[in-house]
Design brief:
The chain is of the alpha/beta class. Helices cover about 45% and strands about 15% of the residues. The chain has one domain (about 5-245): Alpha-Beta Barrel (TIM Barrel), CATH 3.20.20.70. Bound molecules: 2-phosphoglycolic acid (PGA).
Length: about 250
């Protein structure tokens, strides 16, 4: 049985004290959440605090990125090992904002996936097309190419520890959400693509999250689809009430 997961990507939001307060608010509301894995990805300055506050709770901690390098003279970078040592067990990789603003390529993301797995971090690997690509009907081709590039050299055993997030770039932070039909057809396509390379057991157990303006008012219809196993939530994850309402939308 694959896991239902709701992960909050806080992006570059909250100060240390605001963030710690938000974590405490979320913890207070988790009792209502039954069969859903909750993950929060606060900014790096909060990773360790989040790790401490959430120990003995249902919440797991994720980084929003990590370096492709193990250690050394890489000013400003944070390694997978550092994240793990601070209390994270997941890391978001290949987010479209990293691709667009920091020019991350599928090859670089591939290196980051490998180093995360070596450090026992579960990568939440993002894929998704921009608006032009969807309008030109290239979205399946784009996502297929991203998957091939990002997972090059990743084996079936590794895949037991990987989560994929489909995030159509035109839906991120725009208020425009993919329709349940658009989400389902892409999630099914992603699962079939993984099945072709890794077999049906791996594909069936893979959690594929939807991201892009997911909120309490649309989560239910998105999560009702057979291949949508939860969400990667940006804006709405900054409200404890909304985040928990989304987690209760299965
Ligand atoms: P959004 O962001 O929910 O604010 O659209 C989702 C994401 O970028 O992960």
């Amino acid at each position: 049985m694959r896991k239902q997961i709701v992960a909050g990507n806080w992006k570059m939001n909250t100060t240390f004290s605001d963030g710690a307060e938000l974590i405490k608010q979320i913890i207070l509301k988790t009792d209502s959440v039954k069969n859903t894995q909750l993950i929060i990805a606060p900014p790096f300055i909060l990773t360790s605090e989040a790790g401490k506050l959430t120990s003995n709770t249902k919440i797991e901690v994720s980084g929003q990125n990590c370096s492709n390098q193990a250690k050394g003279a890489f000013t400003g970078e944070v390694s997978a090992e550092m994240l793990k040592s601070a209390g994270a067990n997941h890391v978001i990789l290949g987010h479209s904002e990293r691709r667009a603003y920091y020019l991350e390529t599928n090859g670089l993301i591939n290196e980051k996936i490998k180093i995360s797995l070596e450090n026992n971090l579960t990568p939440i690997v993002c894929c998704g097309e921009v608006l032009d690509e969807r309008e030109n009907n290239e979205h399946f081709e784009v996502v297929s190419k991203q998957i091939k590039g990002m997972f090059y050299g990743i084996n079936a055993e590794d895949f037991k520890n990987i989560i994929i997030a489909y995030e159509p770039v035109w839906a991120i932070g725009t208020g425009k959400t993919a329709t349940p039909i658009q989400a389902q057809e892409m999630h099914k396509f992603i699962r079939e693509t993984i099945m072709n390379s890794y077999g049906s057991e791996i594909a069936e157990n893979l959690s594929i999250l939807y991201g892009g303006s997911c909120k309490p008012s649309n989560a239910k219809e998105l999560f009702a689809n057979p291949d949508v196993d939860g969400g990667l939530i940006g804006g709405a994850s900054l409200s404890a009430d909304d985040f928990i309402a989304i987690a209760n939308s299965f």
